[in-house]
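Escalation from tier 1.

The customer reports that the assembly of three entities below gives different structure tokens on two consecutive runs. Tier 1 could not reproduce it. I'm attaching the input and our single run for tier 2 to review.
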Amino acid sequence: MFLQEIINGIVVGASYTLIALGFTLVYGLIRLINFAQISLYTLGAYLALFFSPLFASLLPGHGWIAFGLSILTSGLLTGAAGVAVAGVAWWPIRRAPTISMLVSSLAILILIESLIEVFISPVPEVVKPPVSDRNLTILGSHVSTLQIVMFGGGLALTLVLYLFIRTTRFGRAIRSVASNPNSAAVLGVNIGATVFAVFAIAAMLAGVSGVLVSNTYGVASFTMGEIVGLKGFTAAVLGGMGNIWGAVVGGFTLGILESISTFLLPSQWTAVVAFAVLILVLAFRPTGILGTRLADRA
Amino acid sequence: MKRFSISVFLLFALAALPLFANGQKESSSNDFVLGIGLPLTGSNATYGVASLDAEKLAVSYVNAHGGVLGHPIKVVTWDTKADPATGVAGAQNFASRHVNAVVGFFNSDVTVPAIRILKNAGIPLFGDNPSTPQLAGMHLTNFIRITGDDALEGVIQAQYAIQKLHAKTAVALNDQETFGEAFAQAFVNEFKKEGGTVLDYEGIDPTANDYSAILSKIKSLNPDLLEFSGFYQPAGLLVKQARQMGVKATFITDSAVYGDKYLGIAGDAAVGSYMTNLPLGSSGSSTMEQYLASNMMSKYNIKADPIDANAFDAVLAVWYAAQKAGSIAPADLIKVMHSISFDGATGQVSFLPDGDRAQVDYSIDEVTPQLKYKAVETFKEVLTAG
Amino acid sequence: MGRAVARIAANPAARILSAIALLLIVPFVVSSSYVLDIADDMIIWAILTLGLNVVVGFAGLLDLGYIAFFAIGGYTFGVLGSKLGVSMWLSIPVSAVLVLVAAVIIGIPTLRLKSDYLAIMTLGFGEIIYLTVNNLNGLTGGPNGLYNMPVPRFFGISLQEPGQFYWFLAILLALALLATSRLRRSHIGRAWLAVRHDELAARATGVNVVRLKLLAYMVGALWAGVVGVLFAAKQTIVSPTSFQFSQSFYVLSSVIIGGMGSIPGAIVGGFIFILISESLQGVAQSYSSIVFSVALLAVILMRPKGIVPARVGARAVGRVQHAPPGPRPSGLLQPLSGADAVTGAAPPSGGAPTAPLLSVSGVSVRFGGVQAVRDVSISVHPAQILSVIGPNGAGKTTLLNIISGFVRPDRGSVYLAGRELTHMRVDLRAKLGLARTFQTPRLLPTLSVVDNVMQGGHVTFSPGILSVVVGTTRRRREERQAREQAEELLDALELSHVADSIPTELSYGDQRRCEIARCLALHPRIILLDEPAAGMNAPETEALGRLLLRVRELGIALLLIDHDMSLVRAVSDRVTAMDRGATVTSGKMEEVLRHPDVVQSYLGA
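Tier 1 run:
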């Protein structure tokens, strides 16, 4: 029975990990909390609402391929949106004080969410995945196929991201800018292009996460990103901001903590637990579980 | 000249104020001005917009039948954004425009402050869906409401569960939003009164859409019945995930969940779930019910639900009150509003002195394997005052 | 008439009161309850914006959970009123205490964090408070809220009309404006701006950064908590819907759109928010969040200072014109009545050998794999100029940072006038008379030159915030004296002509002199100078040298790091040479420069 809680926690945690990846990536590079990402998560989900039925009708009988194409398309479009957002809300003020950048990314978050609210839908929408969602029993616990996809997707994306940063030339460029922008510039790295690329990658991650999570649970709403976003940020901090595997560790840990807390507190308080974790981590161990060189204290 | 900036700007603000001074009476004196306050944006927008559609339908019905004592109804709307402060501004606005009557405000916490303002202005409020028992407890003379209060549905759920479903143990959940908590509390009280055991009663995490943690807990408690009070998204998710996890308990929920989206989210898991509902559109329904159901579909492509029906009847109540009073003056409407009686989309409509419905029809619906709602029991509920 | 207006315009308090007087006319002019209700909302919102402006605009703390204090205010009256029948009037002081306590509880962990983590943490606290009032069904009425609070009474009159609340709200606004304005124009306001723009420089001038941040937090919380009570009373219901994150976001938008750090800007921002929300009502209500987020973005990208930018370089209370420029009779600042205002000790008479003022013994520090400073000992006597020279990387700046407290040594000790400084917080060292300049002049960009200098004298102001808010005679005198002194300093340093300019408009040499003037405002015993001549040309360097000698004549010791040998030669009493973290030799300039190891260190690899 206890195992079910752990597994529940890990599955929920997978959704936090997906969001945490985007935060940790951008923060690791330019020390900026990109609030706007939260709305790109929502945007991804709504784009898939359109593309899934489209691809499913074009490829009848190939539900998984349609799903994959839908994820890909939504991801790419959100990535493009991420570049646009960076161009509007970051590039023009990149030398401004941190407050300006934080507020502008907040403004973008509210703007995109409001546009979705007004022009797409103000109410929660049903999400029907183009694939059949079966219930499975693993280790005596119940999970659905899509939950496994979400979980696997989270791990896979983390691994890909990690390898990308460690082994490719572009990944090296990212690392050099993250550790010392000045020397990176001297060495010929195009800082602007690197940052834009990271924004795009983070946005794609956010969009893909939105598709995966909304399809796993079957609903989407224009506010779906907000609290999950905050919990995702908590996961990133918990695991270690700027640390890719920290997103995984933080996400799973937070999911498990929430799962266990249901036995101690009525579950309307679960969200408070998550925020309490955030505050405690920031207060006592801001470098997180796995730690990071980029920890900030005044 | 920055030195005068504060003063200059205050003067500017003052100058801007009269723009909002709609102190004069709206339009020609021939119209019956009806204020409608609803959450048209924000978290309850879906219900507000649908309610407005239903109310506009009722208005066009009334106008097609001669209007209110010969006066056509003119509607002025106000978006409360489900926020008390905005609702209060709306009530003030209606008062300053000297509207004849107000229909609103959907949210209980918006209605409570708004109605005090309308009371001071001598304007009647024909409540659509604000269901908190608090409103009846305030004993306001200018208030009636079409919806039954929160406690009622919970009581009905409990009675049905014990008597017909033979449930002995239950877990009750609520969404920690406005009406859910009161419903669930009423259910818990009645279930215990009828001899059942409530194994657990708590709120769900309003920010989550993965309820596996609490469902895990519920599974270990193994209740006969799982009760939930709230809106369709968490209801659908709960029942779907419950079945996924192998929770066998019968699921029962409230009328706000009714609709296609609940079925869409829950899918096959909804089969065999129950909900309290208004006997809308079922056989034996009244003329008004059928009028509402068919016109909501044809004009707005919306399947009418109990919330819409309450909204619709609120406007009809205005009409009947004016007929009974023989006048469209707000003060006269207030005098008679508690004594009217008519056949509406929600059945036989009449009121108690404290503003509550005297009699509400309810049904218990079950979701069939074809994913349709079927009324398995209907009953008429008579309320006593207080 | 014109002169009366001009005199009102010159006096900030008078300006505020006359604006409020205009506001008070409104209920006589307007009869519609609806309009007065809007006016009430405008004032409530203006007070919230004013409060958040202190936190964000003055102290630079991005608080995303500000509405929590508003919630505490509202619920204090809600709970006390509906459960215990406590009146609104009594709820106000209770709420004030509760929000101040909450501000401290929330502030202490939060305020040590950098701006982005601070923002998230305040967001977290805001959500916790919202969720808590939503969940405590028994105490706070849960999602339905509380509504049975007693109707407030004022001398027998029940307050139920918006027009009635208007008076009290206007008075509250007036008080908040007055208090905020006085704080802004005081040493506390200058310290806040220092904290916002340059924490390092702030510390060096003796500002206790954490305490100032907490103070800003508490002031902001207080306005929100008090107006929260009135809000609950006016609305007759307190429910969680009024206190969600979106509200915090909208208050923040109002602050920024109105003008961050600007008091009239806060009022403007608050008023505009309500006016726009109301005018969108019925026209395009669903667009309001779109409108505000676009407006916010537009302001940040195109007019970051907001609609009414914060004024830079406020002229003194009472002074309307410049003093005529030119040399003062004494030619230079008089030593302050022969007494050191900081410690009361008399400056030493020249000549007789005295104990060292600054005594550094055996300090060492290691960064990662590098031993930056290795067993260094130096001492500086009162009214003495010691220069430290050496090639780049010798550890000179690190040594300076150790003495000033920005770096803590692994071993060794630092003493100033008999007090041990080794591990003392930076700002406390300033209180003991230690001032410093930085490699690039760190002046505050949004304060005028004279205000920058005045900010340097932060430690000379007596503690206590209440006296500032009330505006006691003692405080006004203190402020006036500080200003006079600052102006004298600027005169002496020949900077009077730029007294009202902002530092970025000054030449590099002038900025450097301004920084030194700021050091002098602290009434220091010793000034540490980190490469003051860097970037200066020959004439500027000579002028600097003369200035430093004059400073020494005041009895102030100087510890100087520089590469410019002409400057070093011109001013130094003693010279110490360093290389690779250790001292090489010490003594008169010429001896040191002839020492073979010193020569080697400059020429060597």
